[in-house]
């Protein structure tokens, strides 16, 4: 059996003799050209694929390539740009560009033409290749309700004004918060600026981290609809959050400071609060009120507040209701906010990395007014917190406050309720047409 298997293996043992290749076919010049025409070669090697035919007697050579009789193009004015410079870059001659600037200036201030304004330009045929093309027409929209057109008539440029009919009415945008409130609102059609205003407004009444993915965002914007189909979003008028069919936050743009307020802010709802001011930041006190050696200046002086150690960017809260008397840079305090609470009581918050309120705005207890930083004369991230009584600083840990809300003006409350109901009656809709 073993010998049989060996014989079978020997019978099928392969040969290792060299294989004979097919003979090469001699190609004439025509065949080589045909192969080259049908092959794919790299562009770096000349890309000679494809059939090429020489010109016959039916083709006559032109002295110069013909030009298009008219060119239509679009140009955009940039930041720190001028109208004549933009037109000349687009190919308009200096003479025509200067005339256009004079005509437009008589109809609309050149300095008020917004960056990014698009110009539709038509250039005509030129008499020689060395001359610029003459301007045939130019049109643009310097204002949402106004279009300007300049055309060449009887050898000169003439400007015409074209007012555009505009309808103004609120636009309401709603949707589920999902994984990202910002991205969801943008996907629903709200402009980036409107979404940022919405987030800042909502943060006054509700910490953003408490908004659930299943909640519904609700915002109402002022909106203009033009007769030509364009739209322009305006200010945010209403910001709300709805959870399980019930409003979690409802804020209106209200008052002369154009800030946002809730119905509770207007009515003064809530009980009187009595006790010691709470801590304005989540941190521990590191330095008390009184005389101490300044860590930077190096000499002993009055420390007119208390310091709280907290991580950079931690939110700073208003200790009670009040109005923003000051918000900005304040010398050694760095970024600083001072709140007036009535009855001669005020509080100050220093060394912020960022301020979240503006002067004149109304704030409520627990509202975020800024974030911990180390601006001004500071050795590290912390909050310097002060309390004023009658214009003089006092120890914040010794002040007891009794705050009673003043009676609300019934007319203001009625006007607020009416405005709120009017905006809540707006039906949600998609933004139609291109936005400016």
Distance between the termini: 93 Å
Structural class: alpha+beta
User: How much is the radius of gyration in Å?
Assistant: 37 Å
Number of discrete helical segments: 8
What is the subunit organization of this protein?
A: single chain
What overall form do the CA principal axes indicate?
extended
Proportion of helical residues: 10-25%
Q: Indicate the proportion of strand residues.
A: 35-45%
> Can you tell me the residue ranges where pLDDT is under 50 for at least 5 consecutive residues?
270-275
How much is the average pLDDT?
82
Q: Care to count the β-strands?
A: 24
Tell me the major beta sheet: 10 strands, antiparallel
Q: Could you characterize what this model shows?
A:
The chain is of the alpha+beta class and 436 residues long. The protein has eight helices and 24 strands. The strands form five sheets. Strands 12, 15, 16, 17, 18, 19, 20, 21, 22 and 23 form a ten-stranded antiparallel beta sheet that branches. A five-stranded antiparallel beta sheet has the order 1-2-3-4-5, covered by helices on one side. A hairpin with a 2-residue loop joins β8 (231-243) and β9. The relative contact order is 0.09. Residues 270-275 have low confidence and may be disordered.
Condensed summary:
This protein has helices at residues 2-11, 29-38, 83-89, 94-107, 181-187, 192-205, 263-267, 410-424; strands at residues 71-76, 118-123, 135-143, 146-153, 156-163, 166-176, 216-226, 231-243, 246-254, 259-261, 273-276, 284-287, 290-293, 300-303, 306-309, 315-317, 322-329, 335-342, 345-355, 362-363, 368-372, 382-389, 392-394, 400-403.
